[in-house]
Structures are given as C-alpha cells and as structure tokens.
Amino acid sequence: MNKNKKITVIGAIIIISLSMTSVSGFHTISQSISVIEQQKKNIENDLNDVNNNLIVVNGQISTINNEINHVVEYLNENISELEKLQSCKRYEMQDPTYSDIIKFLINDKTNEKSYDYDTFNCANYAQEVNNNAESQGIRCAYVEVNLSGGIPHACIAFNIIDKGIVYYEPQTDENVNLGIGKDYWADCVVISPGYYYESDPDNIVEGFTLYW
Questions:
Q1: Cα–Cα–Cα angle for 212, 151, 129, nearest 5°?
Q2: Which of 16, 33, 129, 191 could bridge across to 170 with cysteines, CB 3.0–4.6 Å?
C-alpha cells in the first residue's frame, strides 16, 4: 500500500472514530437533558403540592385567628362584667331620661356592625348594646321576644324616667312598640316614612320577657 492510500485509510478511520464519538456524546447529552427535564417536572409538581398545602394551612390559620378573636372578645366582656360586679357598679345603674337614650344610641355604634346568623345575630346585638349602656351607668334590659316561627328574637328596653319602658331594636336603633299578636318587624318596629318591612307569619309576637 502506497503512502497516499495509507493516509487516506488513516483519515477515514479518524473520521469514523470522531463520528462515533460525536454520536455517543450526543446520545449522552440527550439522556442528560431528559433527566434534567424530568427533574424539573418533579420539582414543579413538588412546588404545586407545597402551594396547595400553603393555601390549606393559610385557611386553617385564618379560621383559628377568627376563633381566637371571638374568644378574646368573650373574655373581655366577662372581664368587664366581673370588674363591674367587683366595683358594685351594676348596683348603681340609673334609669335614664329620653334625651339620655337618644344621645347614647347616637354614640353607640353597635348598629353599624354586620349581621351574621352564626357569629353576630340579634342576641349579640342586644347583649352588646345592653353591656355598653350599663358600662355608662344606664340601666338597660335584654328583651327576649317569642315569635310564632319558633325562633326567638332579641331587643332592648329602657325604663325612661319621663316615658316609662321603651323598646328599641339594637340592629337599627329604631323604636319598637312591642305588642303581643303583632308582626314584630312589620307592625312593632317604628320605621322612617317611605320605608316598610314585609309581613311574615313567622314574626308574630307571642310573648316577651325582660331581663334587667
């Protein structure tokens, strides 16, 4: 074999070797890329799981915070009640004048709170206004109203010096002419001209009790 043929053969062998090396290297790189892509998908799935868990945990934290706030509010009310009992202020309550009540209701903001059947219903409104009044030395009654639908309602009352016992709806500060046999909202609550409450057979007053 002459020199030129040897060079040609050697060159071909080198080219083939390089080609095989390139193919092998490309295959290895492709495998690495596939592994990396799979790892990326796994990481993304893990991140999605973590985010979903965080959403659940945040919801649980929010619920716990709400429960804590309710407990704190309840404890504060009881502490306030205990302090009044210890200082004998409960026994120093005074029956107000009509002007006293008007001023009190204007300044009291309980009626601005949002109604919620489970967390802040009519009983809560009446209790809060009752407590607020007594904290100012104003004697106030919690009134339980028995309605025909079976679900009781709650309002408040004051023994006003110049008017006698007067009832108020704590959710709206509206005067109430409470009477048995009347529809509480449609007939008893005194509303502004131009407004009205619809009658409901479940809202007929069957009786009521005052707790001073």
A1: 35
A2: 129
Distance CA 18, CA 30 (A): 18
pLDDT in tens, the chain (212 residues): 555 555 565 655 666 665 555 555 566 777 778 788 888 888 888 888 888 888 888 888 888 887 787 667 766 766 766 665 555 555 578 999 999 999 999 999 999 999 999 999 999 999 999 999 999 999 999 999 999 999 999 999 999 998 999 999 999 999 999 999 999 999 999 998 888 999 999 999 999 999 99
Residues 173 and 71 in one domain: no
Q: Find the radius of gyration of the CA atoms of the chain.
A: 39
Contacts 24+ apart (CB under 8 A), 16-22: none
N residues, the chain: 212
Token output for 65 = 């915070």
Q: Which domain holds residue 44?
A: 1-92
Same domain? For 102 and 177 the reply is: yes
